[in-house]
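To assess whether the prediction recovers the assembly geometry, we first specified each molecular entity separately, as shown.
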Amino acid sequence: MNKQIEPVFPIRSFEDGHVLSIVLAGVGGQGTLIAGKLLGILALKLGLDVKVSEVHGMSQRGGSVITYVRIGKKVFSPIVEEKTADFCLCFESLEALRWAGLLKNSGRMIINTQQINPLPVLMGQLDYPDAISESLCSACANPSTVLSMDALSMAREVGSTKATNIVLLGALSVFSDFPESLWHDSIREAFAQKPATIPMNIEAFEKGRDFARTFMYN
Amino acid sequence: MDKILLGNEAIARGAYEAGVKVVSSYPGTPSTEITESIAAYDRIRCEWSTNEKVGAEVAIGASIRGARAMTCMKHVGMNVAADPLFTASYTGVNGGLVFVVADDPGMHSSQNEQDSRHYARASKVPMLEPSDAQECKDFTKRAFELSEKYDTPIIIRLHTRVSHSRSIVHLDEPLEIVVKDYVKDVAKNVMMPAMAVKRHIWVEDRLQRMEKDASSDKSVGCYEWIKGDDQVGIITAGAAYQYVREALPNATVLKLGLIYPIPSDLIARFASSVKRLVVVEELDPYLENEIKAMGIACEGKSLFTLQGEYKASMIRKAITGIEKDTGEINTSALCQAPNRPPMMCAGCPHKGLFMALNRLKAQVMGDIGCYTLGALPPTSAIDACVCMGASVGMAHGFDLATDGVDSERTVAVIGDSTFLHSGITNLINAVYNRSKITVIILDNSITGMTGHQQNASTGMDIRLNPAPAVDLEALCVSVGVKSVRVVDPVDTAQSQSVIKEAMNEDGVSVVIARRPCALIPTGKGPKGMTVLVDKDKCTACGQCIRIMCPALIAGPDKMPVIDPDTCNTCGLCINVCRFDTLSVGGVE
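The predicted structure of the complete assembly is given in tokenized form:
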């Protein structure tokens, strides 16, 4: 557990002018907006520039939603384009399949294995695709590109499925060397309006972080 | 202090720092969060208005009385507010007056893709366009200053990627709220022909002065000239500026802030400093046409599309021909992901109502709200949908076009907020002109799709304080509707028979389908409760599966499986089950 390995996105990359591009893809109502906001707060604490782009309105009613986060010394475009994402955080399996093309060469994908049936599947017109993680893995050169996890169950274990987004952020945190205390501070700030939920969200974060660590080191 | 703010929150912050006193708006994506954020500043008098025209008129009144005032709307809301806008251009202001309009390129949540920049030119009202949250705040403060300096309303034009992107904003101390003295001035404020003729001359002069100042004075023009490689010079504004800088970090760029009137001297100087001039703007060739009209050659829509949002890669490719980036995942090896269109939520009261309309094979004139989703499967119940309030008028149009023959099978469906926005005028018209239509008011006690704003019928104001509530039944009766019925839309069988009765009636009939939205406190089911399945009784007939509730899926045995996290215990599935299989249960 204590083995030191080079993070996928070391903090010093910002010094070289790199912009960290993160995609949060999910279904309306899954908490991608809060996760994006939290990453924005984190960037501010790191003393960096940031843009977070959200989708509001009709798509939020159970549609496919995507939030883009870009962090760097100077960030212009708020949009993460095809083949440019360092990380895709997929809140739902099918959405991982939908947005896989955004991942850049050597990018990483974290997938919550939860399945939410879209309308064409509910109507029986199409099947929900099988073995999404496996097919994504086989479509990329690096076998450690995809990390699949049951973030929903982990969130349920800490007290609320609403914390699924924070479990996923915990997993994401392992891939960089941003100080853990800054993540915790960002969680506290993001949930400042609902202070009672902060301990649970920190626990959710640590749960995701522990899981991803195990993945990284094995 | 620095803070991460949404573009819309930054507009609100700018208005607060500028000492705005009055804000009156109707919600509309992507503009809604501006006025919601304003409500957090206690000292500002703010409200949800019944529609955008009303919001604009309230702001105009406050401005003439001497307060700084603002009204915010989505692009199609500008069409509603256009009437007061065009004449407020003539009266000018006393306290600063700002209209904020948010366009939606790519139509994330809109029924058309109009380019509201044309309104600036048409109404002769100056327009500013910010490109990120910091500029949202800065330009809002500047807008109030320019409004008072030039005695004109100012329009701030946003679009989705600016409204709904968060970035770092430096916060400053707010100005005191000052309400200026009011002096009656008929020549300035009463727009009838004799006065308006003179004011029009003055308006043209105002635009010329401002245009001249904007070329030399950055505090008016709000432009930025980024010097780089002189092979290509790009003129741009708003979100497109961000994509340009991302795509071509070394290009020479003129970012316009004031986009109407366009500073012509500045444009001419910039054009002569570069070898190739390209205009990058989403939607219409607005800047391009203005620049070409100055006699300056440039490229624009010959390289770029008129539709949707732009991206850095698209701009790079269009201007330099270069494509870069390689992906990690070979997407051609993957199966295609089924689409995920938006759908009605678990517990949504609209679903049962549309199932009833579907069974009645009614011709349904739709309106703007979550219930527009009734046009999609599984109900596919809506025939036409155009704009706020139109359903009632369109149903009356069907009635007239068929001499009343179609009235027996035509209904209008309209939400509570939309009905008060502009459905009521249509209802009065239909009653007055002896129509035979049936109007169904989908009263879910909230303005739903824009994210749950209060309205005049909900009993609460923007700050959730108790407020007088319009009595929809009494309102309909008072305009002459002879029959008003109320149903619970989850009871589809009852809804179906009541609507049928109403459709068979002479004259205009109204059915109010009343049940709160499942996402607001009064619409949520009891905690811990869910729908239980009695597998001994279930025949796997599929009736409950066909309602397409997000909380209910078919198990491997084709019997329903309920997701207790999502189920709202609305009872729609229980009502459609013919075998008494389903019941509400759990631990409360």
